[in-house]
Amino acid sequence: MPRHLPLRPMLLALSMIDASHALAATDDVPETQLQTVTVTGAPEQDSYTARATRSAGKLELSLRETPQSISVVSRALMDDFKLGNINQVLATTTGVTVEKVETSRTYYTARGFDIVNFQYDGVGMPVVFGNIQGDLDTALYERIDVVRGANGLMASTGNPSATVNFIRKRPTAGTQASASVTLGSWNERRIEGDVSTALNESGSVAGRAVLVHQQSDSYLDRYAPKKDVAYAVVDAHLSKDTLLTVGHTYETNRDKGPMWGALPLYYTDGTPTNYPVGTSTSAKWSRWDTTTHSTFAELNHNLGQGWHVQGTLNYITDKSDSDLQYVYGTPVKGVGGGLHAYPSQYGADQKQTLADLAVDGKFMLGGRQHDLAFGYSWSRSKLSDFSNYGQGIGTELPGQTAFDGSYPMPTFDAAYDGSRYEDRRNTVYLATRFNLADDWKVLTGMNSTRARSSGASYGTSKYKSASKTTPYVGVVVDITRELSAYASHTQIFNPQSETDANGVPLDPVKGKTTEAGLKAALFDNKLNVSGAVFQTKQDNTAEQAGNIGAKAYYRGVNAESKGFEFDSSGELAKGWEASAGLTRLTSIKGDNGVTVRTYVPRTTLRANTTYRLPAEPKLKVGATLAWQSETSTDQEPGIRTVQPSYATLGLMVRYDIDKHLSLSLNLNNVTDKKYLTSLYWTQSLYAAPRNGSATLSWTY
């Protein structure tokens, strides 16, 4: 076979990405031209679980050997149910609640608290500026691990909710390629390509590239999101013991008609509002653009005798630019009015740099072999942002004009404000896994972090300096070859950037968390099952207390969370994959036993399953179910907004036309359930109604 032949899949996949410009045609292109396209890369593997992970520490352990609850969202699960962004992934994950407060900003919670720890390939990047902005695509990742509870060993802060670890795609040993085209509801068009191949004759240098283009209209009035993603990574074996990896990600979101804030939830007479699902407070001129560049470099070296060292550098820039309309006030039932305009231009420039040096290996003690990992992590995060406030702030919007987008674009010169501050963190970590006996393992260590910030935000000092050493201990006891019991305990330390009504940053969160449970690895480790009980006490947790204009302010609340959960993922039988989880928060109490954080559902159920029919092995069918219990938020005294419990159902079917080509159909929110996306804020919006997509996939 000629040596140039393996490059043909790469050229084909890249040519399909070029075709995205045709698919991404402007609105005046006839829709009939788009319906002839249909293409998507088949999963590289069918498993819904992982045999080993480093997400709970720098030591590679199986899920059963890890003394914390872990959920795995595999590439196969993401492909089967077309989970194209992080919100969709985490919405299918045990114990995680996606708090989509606007079209372009999202919070996440687990075990009653906000998720603020995110990692890329096990290296943390602190979220010091609040929420997640934009529509973060999942095409770059091989899988996503969610470690619930305080990850006190590897995260620079011991937040008791969860740590989300994004495992990036890497070059593969052989040439492989995939491409897909998706057409969906509201004129959705998505094209995706993924190519990996050797870059030199010896194969010592290999590369991989992922490209994505997606755009659509929306069920929300005037909203039209668009994004482009490009990812490239190169592995270079400098010697038999040294591997250099360099990668870069570019992601841009260009959103027309986004919402800043959301819908008012009650009328002046105290009764709840009930708008059409597509209602939006955006203006016709509203826009929100974000651009992210992320560059990383890793140097791995084998020191010999089971010891390894890895150095990692990450540099991320996030830029956003927007013209937005915030609507505030309380509407008058029947006649309208009561709402007011708050237009503003907002721009931000965030820069984050992180360096991490980690060493891991094995050592002998007492005639047994044990594991050790230690390292140092340093990060610097800078934010520079501005708000140019528009003329006409406070203008009343008569009738229903708050929802028709008709408010004229003002000049943005009424006032100016902004931020310029910096956050630095230094962390030393140590983890040791003692092999005390054939069936007894103890994982212990500590994390010592110092966090400092300086600068000012909207006229308020952001200075803070805090440090804390948090210990961690976990025990795993093998009951049988497949079943083990575990327990773990760690302390909590988390500096906060949220400010009170006077603009003063809240003091760091402190507390402790404990969990215990059982884990099983069944069917030759193809199925992982776990159950856990947990208890967390956390003091001074930021909770939104109100708004001054469009700006939220917070108060520190003390909270104690208790609950239990079950999680399973993997192969139940030949051709039958599933992941499922149930989380029950038996209580979240504040001072004097008062119930707090009522916007967090006390019970959540997640289930995802696919089955390849034995009589027709080319056909795969599946379903996904998400259910959560009632949530609520207090508005004015005596007024409470309630979102009753609800369930959403999704269905999928996939047919393999031949070994390279397959067609998938996905249907979401099958029952067309109407519900609010979040009660994290005192405003909200409605989730998407019934929608579907068709995807044609090609693989090599």
Structure report:
- This protein is mainly beta and 700 residues long.
- The protein is 4% helix and 56% strand.
- The chain has four helices and 35 strands.
- The chain has helices at residues 7-18, 20-23, 75-80, 86-91; strands at 69-74, 96-100, 105-110, 113-114, 117-120, 123-124, 132-133, 141-148, 162-168, 176-184, 188-198, 205-215, 226-239, 242-256, 287-304, 307-329, 339-365, 368-389, 396-397, 415-437, 440-457, 460-461, 464-478, 483-494, 509-522, 527-548, 551-573, 576-589, 603-612, 619-628, 631-634, 640-643, 646-656, 661-668, 691-699.
- The strands form four sheets. The protein has a 22-stranded antiparallel beta barrel. It has a five-stranded mixed β-sheet with strand order 1-8-9-5-6.
- Strand 3 and strand 4 (113-114) form a beta hairpin.
- Residues 1-44 have low confidence and may be disordered.
Keywords for this entry:
single chain, 700 residues, mainly beta, 22-stranded antiparallel beta barrel, five-stranded mixed sheet, 4% helix, 56% strand, disordered N terminus
- The shape, in one word, is globular
Fraction in beta strands: over 45%
Poorly predicted residue ranges: 1-44
Helix tally equals 4
Average of pLDDT: 88
Distance between the termini: 16 Å
Major sheet description: 22 strands, antiparallel, barrel
Radius of gyration: 25 Å
Estimated helix fraction: under 10%
The structure class reads: mainly beta
Please provide the count of β strands.
35
Tell me which oligomeric state these chains represent. single chain
Domain TonB-dependent receptor plug: 63-161
Domain TonB-dependent receptor-like beta-barrel: 248-670
Family: Belongs to the TonB-dependent receptor family.
Keywords: Cell outer membrane, Membrane, Receptor, Signal, TonB box, Transmembrane, Transmembrane beta strand, Transport
